[in-house]
Design brief:
With 305 residues, the chain is α+β, with helices and mostly antiparallel strands. The protein is 25% helix and 36% strand. The relative contact order is 0.13.
């Protein structure tokens, strides 16, 4: 997917490893590169590096924000290897697993499962989790990278409701397949979602419920950044997605299911990438005082007006 067309960008919060992690990921995934870096100075966490990169053409952002949030498996990333497109899909899957395993921890071992000839779930050395899957060529086609949301604890059983909500908020959206737990798979309740996928802004996402004991839930370590063209879009997504006033800060909101979003003006990325030290300092001082971003005021600060 071309980087310029991706409206929703996973945003990864690191303590101090954003640059290092971006270099690591872009070195082990195909067709990957760091696209920009910027340093935001004098934030509450000190100087913060902001890194944009893409993995197999899929856009990510990462920040050094200090030790406030830790990655967990509530949001993970499917990596789909398709033998009909890559005759070495199995070998490439195994190689990536080996590279992600260095300093990492398997959550589900790499082996055959009822849903895949070869699948494994790995937590890498930074704590980010990846689900590597060998696709059955007869199944529905899916992109190489698909963010996946896991509904547990207080939002258990909400995967369908939450994905319906996101489908109502975003354009170019549609439900893919939905597979429900059958009877006899306790503790998972019959009828809750074993797996569903859906498109938001022509980007693929997945969701599932899990009633097994989990000591994690959605947090700010992985947020979903919505790139907005104008103030009207910022106002729209802010109103739709924000459900916790206490979480509103610097463009961040938290929705009714606990997922963090950033409502981000596209022009901000351009200013951060191209600004002088003085322009960046004025911009940073201004946006740190905002909850919802005001594009006009950000541009005025950047231009020194």
């Amino acid at each position: 997917m071309p980087i310029s067309r991706q409206k929703i960008v996973p945003h990864l919060w690191f303590n101090q490893e954003a640059k290092e992690a971006a270099q690591f990921y872009t070195s082990i995934f195909p067709d990957s590169k760091v696209t920009s870096t910027a340093t935001i100075r004098n934030t509450p966490s000190g100087d913060s590096d902001l890194v944009s990169f893409h993995i197999a053409g899929y856009s990510f952002m990462a920040i050094n924000g200090g030790p406030h949030f830790q990655f967990n498996p509530s949001i993970s990333f499917f990596v789909n290897f398709d033998p009909s497109k890559d005759e070495n899909a199995g070998e490439n899957l195994d190689l990536l697993w080996e590279q992600l395993s260095q300093g990492g921890t398997p959550l589900m071992p790499l082996q055959e499962y009822p849903f895949s000839k070869r699948y494994g779930w790995i937590q890498d050395k930074y704590g980010l989790t990846w689900q590597l899957m060998l696709r059955n060529p007869d199944d529905q086609e899916r992109p190489f990278i698909v963010p996946s949301l896991l509904y547990v604890q207080d939002v258990l059983g909400k995967a369908e409701e939450a994905s319906d909500f996101y489908l109502s908020v975003f354009g170019e959206s549609r439900r893919g397949e939905i597979v429900r737990y059958p009877a006899g798979m306790e503790p998972d309740e019959e009828g809750t979602v074993m797996f569903t996928d859906f498109m938001l802004e022509n980007q693929c996402f997945a969701a599932m419920d899990s009633a097994h004991p989990h000591n994690f839930k959605f947090n700010e370590a992985i947020s979903l950044l919505v790139r907005c063209k104008n103030q009207e879009e910022i106002d729209y997504y802010w109103e739709k997605l924000s459900s916790e006033p206490s979480a509103e800060q610097c463009g961040w909101v938290k929705d009714r299911y606990g997922v963090s979003w950033q409502i981000w003006p596209e022009v901000m990325g351009e200013m951060l990438a191209n600004g002088t030290t003085e322009q960046m300092n004025r911009l940073t001082k201004t946006f740190l005082q905002m909850k919802k971003f005001n594009i006009e005021k950000l541009i005025q600060a950047y231009q020194g007006k």
